[in-house]
Design goal:
three-stranded antiparallel beta sheet, two-stranded antiparallel ribbon, 5 strands, flat
């Protein structure tokens, strides 16, 4: 779900302007589809913990459970080129901050 502030920029003209400018830059600089890469990061906690703080707002139906800042995380970074070539994923293990 996107925050309301982020959805304000999602208009048809904003998309058209962005992709027109992107197309111009790609042609002007001679960038080929095989050199365009989209990357994504997915993070998960390495260890699930039961210690944390419950944050609740009386105006909503949901609660947030926060974990300790020292919980280690694992991130998976994946990428694919505009030509459809998948690059080897990278796994990053974070250290515990004590």
């Amino acid at each position: 779900m996107l925050e309301r502030i982020r959805t304000r920029g999602f208009t048809k003209s904003a998309y058209e302007d962005f992709y027109n400018y992107l197309g111009f830059q790609l042609r002007f600089k001679g960038i080929l589809p095989r050199n365009i890469t989209n990357m994504d990061k997915y993070g998960i906690q390495e260890v699930e913990i039961t210690v944390g703080t419950v944050i609740n707002d009386s105006l909503t139906d949901r609660s947030l459970i926060t974990s300790l800042d020292s919980t280690p995380w694992v991130f998976v970074i994946k990428a694919i080129t505009a030509k459809g070539y998948r690059l080897t994923p990278v796994i990053v293990f974070t250290e515990t901050l004590l």
